[in-house]
Amino acid sequence: MNDPYTERVALVTGSSRGVGRLIAEHFLYGGARVIGVARGGSDLAHERYQHIEADVADAAAVNALFASLRTAGTAPDIVVNNAAVLTSQYAMIMPASAAEAMLAVNLLAPFLVSREAAKLMRKKKWGRIINIGSMAASLEPAGDSVYAACKTGLSTLANVMAKEFAPMNVTCNTLAITAFETDMLRQLPRDKIDAVIAGLPLPRYATADDILNVVDFFASERSSYVTAQTLFLGGVH
């Protein structure tokens, strides 16, 4: 099919830039109606794109977001929990505020969004929840204690929700990406990232197609028997 998402509504968090922007544009290209969510605005302009400014780590904001969708008669078929923050510092010098921010955005937010989305998916008896994880969950690099723990927790969150949501025909999976050129990546020392990539079985940076290929797989109608899975790119395991 040229437009595999024509009948779908996709909600993407952290859609204003980076991987989230990439995924939002991909769904638009595939014919979906896309709801992008970010704390700030977006310059993505498309007739099928709706941008909502909201802090997905705030329970009240998430509840208000989904209340507005219900009022509009809109229910997402596909949810991509992509919003994330990263502070890479050794544990002894990391401020508690930075750790708390990562826990809120990287772990609490996917819980809040997935929970509310599932309530709408239940009525449709169909849904795909896709979490964007990280190689850090497996490689556990120094300086990423909280970030890696959040991404490990994200997979566990999806696995448990997969069991809870299975009777509703809603799947929950995680795509753990390797280094990909984003603003977040550019915060980190390039020599350290290069060293990590050099140690992978497939020693290269991720491409857009690497990521979108797996997103399509998880979102596909044909993947109804695939749930509670974490797929690591680059040979990470």
Automatic annotation (TrEMBL):
Top-level lineage group: Bacteria
Pfam families: adh_short
GO annotation (BP), single: monocarboxylic acid metabolic process
PANTHER family hit by this protein: 3-OXOACYL-(ACYL-CARRIER-PROTEIN) REDUCTASE, 3-OXOACYL-[ACYL-CARRIER-PROTEIN] REDUCTASE FABG
Family membership noted in the UniProt record: Belongs to the short-chain dehydrogenases/reductases (SDR) family.
Name of the protein this chain belongs to: SDR family oxidoreductase
